[in-house]
Amino acid sequence: MKKLFISFILISINIYAQNTTNNVEEKKYSSIRLDTNAYKTVFGTQRQPVWVYIGEAKRALHQGDTSYALYLMNQTLSYYPDSADAHYYLGMIYEREAGDPADAGGAASYRLAIEEYKKSIELYTNFSIPAYKLDSYFNLLNIYEKLIDEENYAIIEKEISDLADRTFDKAERGRIYFKLAEHYDERNRSTASIDFYRKAYLNGYRQKLSLFRISIIYRKMRNYVSEKEYLILANKYEFKNLEPSNFEVEKSIVQRLKALQNVRIPKKLT
Question: How does the average pLDDT of the chain come out, rounded?
């Protein structure tokens, strides 16, 4: 009986050791199996639509697997060379990985991103989401700024402005002006920012917010007369959507008008 009990203990220990080893091996190779399964699922014998590959690339990026995401998008473009979406997302991956242009490979990665964004713009009629065209332009603008490439920055800047001027849809034209205004606002280019916020307002795009943003710029410039003028004008409009940020703007307008109640606005000469 005693020998039987000892044998039972030894067998149990052996089984436990085998299970432990298997668990360690399972953990060791689990990520490899995941990638392999994903690879087989996405690049099987049957070709999948572009959005399937893009979705898998997004998942890879979310998990921090940039190399796999790059492989996915390059492989996708070998199947669909005219996919504007694939070029756009490949450009985003290169831009994301570029980091500081002064770092090793940083400038080179930005150059690769530039090429992909340009290709996506050339193929813009194939975009599943038309707004990606404008996003590509602004991504190029940001990259040229980081590379301190003033010549190409100015070219893209003009192309965006011309794109707005050529757009027949008033709301879309206003949206482009608004994005340009935000771009300049972030860089403290006050005159340009005011100009494009005003253009966005005149085209009926986010009018209350455009006017409010102009008032903030004038406040920074300590031009309280102009700030009050634009706050009064902004107060005449209503937001079309109920969003928490809009309530904050409404609150700020009321508070600032109260703070500026003693600021006199001179009568305009007619």
Answer: 84
